[in-house]
Design a protein that fits this description.
Elements: H1 3-10, H2 13-28, H3 37-44, H4 46-60, H5 68-82, H6 85-97, H7 102-116, H8 118-134
Helix pairs in contact: 2-4, 3-4, 5-6, 5-7, 6-8, 7-8
Amino acid sequence: MDERELHENELDKNELAKLTQRTAEKLFGPPQDGVGPFALWREFDPELAKQLSLFFTGRLYSREVLSQKQRELCAVAALAATGAQPELGVHCRAALNVGATREEVAEVLFQVCTYAGLPATIEGLRTLKQVLQERGEWRPAGS
């Protein structure tokens, strides 16, 4: 049975919960109480938050069709193009956490200007710079 069939047919609730947790930690680091989208969802509807997390993180983000790095770079592009800055920061961090370089994330943001305009690229680069500063990894190119 391939990975896709396992996801679709074989994951029991306990296995799915463990897969969701492993994937979330790989992408976003250890859980932080009251921080991030899941915490916000939970404030409004704890059961729906759990179901959303099981689907997005456990089923979608754990698929192996794309690598985690490729998946996060896609998320960075989509979020920058739509101007979703807080979520863009979450996924810039996740991209870096799963092996994307700052140059790769920046290149994706430069590519966004072709489809979403230069303001989207500028805001995306501001968000990436802030993430790199928070991680203690910011340095201007050429320095």
